[in-house]
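Look at a sample.

——
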Amino acid sequence: MPFLRGRDFTAADRDPAAPVVLVNETFARRVFGNQDPLGRHVRIGGGDPPDPFWRQRLQSRALGLFAALALLLALVGLYGVVAYTEAQRRREIGLRVALGATRRQLVATIVAEGVRLAAAGIAVGLAAALVLTRVLASLLYEVRPTDPLTFVGVPLALAAVALLASWVPALGAAGVEPQRALQSS
């Protein structure tokens, strides 16, 4: 095979303190990309040559793992806050029932308020995410900064949790007798 660049081995290359290696064009392109391979160092052993994109992949996977964990924490936190807020309204709900509100009206009102609050948070979160994707674009690997699955899936998951977090306590609170709800505080 002809040499494209560099030189052949010489007797001086037997010195273990200064190892030399010949590589083919495919290896040079995979390991060094468009950079000049002459004078560069590679670690030999351990199987396949190092992947020049392995660091980006690691960062992307770590970022993805932390994003999934953040989403899980956001979902749990959102459920907890909305459910707690709705549970604190038992007296108000008891008063509404005493004044003639139906169970259906109460549930609809409470759920609508919870979803409205979540929608405001989702809108702010989407705006912040669109701004931050420009900063994080260099860390993304094989994902576009404005990935439709992310920008649709996450808000839908948050909205579903907000709906559930509002609906479950609303059903429980709407079923309480007015006298009992007004007495407990």
